[in-house]
Structure formats: C-alpha cells, structure tokens
Prior knowledge:
By secondary structure, the chain is an alpha/beta fold. The chain has helices at about 1-40, 50-80, 95-105, 105-110, 130-145, 180-190, 190-205, 270-280, 290-300, 315-325, 330-335, 345-355, 365-375; strands spanning about 90, 115-120, 125-130, 155-160, 165-170, 210-215, 220-225, 260-265, 285-290, 305-310, 335-340, 360.
Amino acid sequence: xxxxxxxxxxxxxxxxxxxxxxxxxxxxxxxxxxxxxxxxxxxxxxxxxxxxxxxxxxxxxxxxxxxxxxxxxxxxxxxxxxxxxxxxxxxxxxxxxxxxxxxxxxxxxxxxxxxxxxxxxxxxxxxxxxxxxxxxxxxxxxxxxxxxxxxxxxxxxxxxxxxxxxxxxxxxxxxxxxxxxxxxxxxxxxxxxxxxxxxxxxxxxxxxxxxxxxxxxxxxxxxxxxxxxxxxxxxxxxxxxxxxxxxxxxxxxxxxxxxxxxxxxxxxxxxxxxxxxxxxxxxxxxxxxxxxxxxxxxxxxxxxxxxxxxxxxxxxxxxxxxxxxxxxxxxxxxxxxxxxxxxxxxxxxxxxxxxxxxxxxxxxxxxxxxxxxxxxxxxxxxx
Length: 383
C-alpha cells in the first residue's frame, strides 16, 4: 500500500514539475512580447503615431489574453493533478471583485456589457485563498458575459450568510436555454478552459456552482463557497504601485554613482528590451547569460540590484543566489536579488525566497512591476 502511495505521489510531483516547466517555457517568449510592447507604449524608442499606438495596444491585449490562457491551462492541470492547495488569509471581497472586473473589462467592452458589482456589506472580509477567490470571480464574470446578450447589464451580487460566501450574477440571456445543462454545454464550446477551471476551483473549495433562468429570461449563475467571515483592515494605497521609481526621489547629484542593475537571463531578446528600458531611466546595466557569469559579475562589480532568472544553463538561478549569499564579502552578500520565474506558483516562490532571493517576480512582467521592484530596492542615496 505504501509503495502504491509513493508511486502516486511521485507521479503527481512529476506532473506538477512538467506543468511548471511548460508554463515557464511558454512565458519566456511571451515575456519578451509584453516587455517590447510596454516599452513602445512608454515611448522609450520615440513617440508613436495614433494608428501605431492603437496597433501596439491591440498586440498588448492579445498578449494578455494569451498569458491568461497559459495560466488557466497550467492551473487546471495542477488542480487535476492534486498539486494545488488553498492558503487562507484575510482579504476584502470588494478588492477581489474590483480586480476581477478589471480583468474582464476588455471582454465586457467588446460585447458592450455594463458591469455592476454589489458587495453587501461593502467592507465584507473573508478568510480565503485570495488568488483563488479572484480567479473564481474572474471566471464567473467571464462565463456570465459570454452567456448573455450584447449591450446589456451584468450584475454581480456578493453576500455572506451561515452557508458561506455567495457570488451571484444576473444578465439577460442571449438565447434562453430550456435547461441549465444546455447553457453549460454552450459555454463549454465558447471557453472550455475557463469554464473547466471555474468548476475545478469551486470543487477545490468544496463549493457549489448552479445555473438557472428566471421568468424574465435572465441567466443566474450562483456559486457558494464555505468561507468564514473575517475583519480586514483596509490598507493604505502604495504609491510605488503606480508611479515611476524615480518620481518621488531627488535627482542624483552629478558626483553620485549611477545605480547599477545586473540582468541575469539566457533570453537575449528579453535582456535587450529590459536593458533599454532601464537605461532610459538612467541606470547603468550589466548582463550575464548564465548563473556562473552572474556570480562573477556580482562578486566583482557588486551591483545595486540583480534580476536573476531561475532557469539558466551552466549554473541555475537558485544555485547562483545561494553562492552569492554565501560570499565572504558583506557587500556582495547583501545585494538585493529579485528572482524571475515563469512557474508562477506559490511553491516556486517559496523555493526562491528560501534560496535567498529578496523578492520574486513572475514572467512576463510589465514596466510598472519593474518600477515597483526598483523603487523598493534602489535608493539614490545608496553608496
């Protein structure tokens, strides 16, 4: 019996590793696309004409959709493999709803659908896996938007009672089905991965997902999750999330050393676009093509910040981080290191932090995320 369990656990571990590797490999080229697009929109290479900006924005939207599709496929595989667990923290439901509404805004706009969200009470706090809860709300809104007619209103009503958290959408049906199963079949043909992920996420929470139609031919989707209420303090907004890293800092005096950033990655295209953006902000940039070069550059040049890819040849990123942290020179040992990974899983983040990474950044990342990292770890007065 124990041998059989070991075989099952080994199989699940292998599948989880495969899914993580697949996600990383798919996100690598996508990371370059996202970075190139964002630097173009930031006018790093010069101003764009109106038609050019429109075309680049369209590319950006498609890249985001592809990223979401990759994330859904990997997440679905991990859940089905039994490699996904829930980690509960206190979170505000209204914040998760706002993030989900933003995620489906493009779909709603393309179908001329007005999104209306009602959370009762507005300060409703829940003990939940915040990321998974946001995924559920996002996929629910997406499924509801695809099931209703264009030009209508889609209402999301969120409440909590003794049965847990209830998420309910209402929207005028495009083609009122005779039974809910027909609607689910129709949605499965339109967005099979998103609907499958939604159902698996609800099942992971031991919740229920029901579809019904009322007398006014409105489609009602209802999800119940057995989650407990919690008091959550509303955090103050973080200015670093929206502003450039140098906007709130005094300019560097002419005699001051320019902050140096080391980019360690084996993807030349991603290195090039990230380097161009950082240099446009006034940073000195050095590069390494593998973990061995990164260690050498860190020890000899002691940059202010290292952006370290996890998967690299010769010496991988995690090993490189460990060796830098083991340096006898305190200046080298204390360099801020941000690990870059396309795995996008909680366990991968934990591995990076355990190896000694200062922070963790998912691939692909945008310039605003890069700005935030720089603002947190580089200050003009550092010497």
